[in-house]
Specification:
Blueprint: H1 2-20, E1 30-32, E2 36-37, E3 42-44, E4 49-52, E5 57-59, E6 64-66, E7 72-77, E8 81-84, E9 87-89, E10 93-98, E11 101-105, E12 108-110, E13 114-119, E14 122-126, E15 135-140, E16 165-167, H2 173-176, E17 184-186, E18 192-200, E19 205-213, E20 217-226, E21 237-238, E22 246-250, E23 254-263, E24 269-275, E25 286-292, H3 297-330
Length: 331
Amino acid sequence: MGKRVLVLIFVFVLFAGFVSGECIEPSDGMLITKNTILCKGDYRLDNGISIKGNEIYLDCDRAVIEGNFEKVGIIVEGFDVSIKNCNILYFEKGIEAKNSKLSLINSTLAKNSIGVYNIDSIIDYIDSDVSDNLDVRINISIPESQFLMFEDEIDLEEAEYSRLVKVPNLFGDEAIALLDLSGEEVATEEDVSIEIFRQYADDYTKYVIKVIPLKDLIDVKVFVYVPKIVAPDSDYVVLPQEYISHDIVNIDPAQFVFYLTNMIAGEQRDVEVVIKRKVIKNTDVGAIVTYSKSLKPWQNFLVMTLFASSIVFYFVDRRFRKRIGEKVKHL
């Protein structure tokens, strides 16, 4: 009798554990492919969580998932996915859903740059709060067919573009965070005028960044930020101005730096960036101008050399004039 009772108790405990489900502590960059329950607690997951597969639920049990204002809290790729009882804070995107069907249940997304980033997905919001984010929701639909494969034979100069339309400058703090600005000064409205214009061709969008310094500036650089909503990565960006020296700062999202060297007040320089598709409305690029806080080492060396040369020339010239004067006296 005693053994039978012990067996029944064991089966009951096992069954209860199966029904309730055991919780697990999430790990940074965790991939979820089956139904999962997280243990309560606060978790710092800079690389977030990914859910891939169909008919999967994630129950956070009110756990808090925090990032560092970069990357994505939860990436969803699948149909009939449910996320419930989650608190997602301090990411670039709280949730990103790609070609998915998602139910967001009893969850809070707050203090993120973008609450929910929806790419060709169907999302049901059930008792969830996504209001306390810089951008609450962004819904986009960009079929891959809209992006052109790179074709060298296309002559961008021959393309007929529409007229210039001025657009907002979307260069934000998240873009500045990608840069190494040591030894440089970010130009303000008192230093430089920046205007960004958009033009359309049949299958291209051109952005023209007009830079006009309001005072003489040394070592001027223009950083151009292309959000993923404009182009998935740098492969979809063409830089037609080969004569302007440039580098790729970041690939995903695409970010470039153009070197305009030294500029005098009132001088206008244009930087052009072409996207290989028609950019959807209200999504544009951003630009920021920097200049050197001080002379670079080689510039300091040049200045010191010129200064020393001028002193030497002064004394040589003075001595030479003195000798000439003495010879004139003897005559």
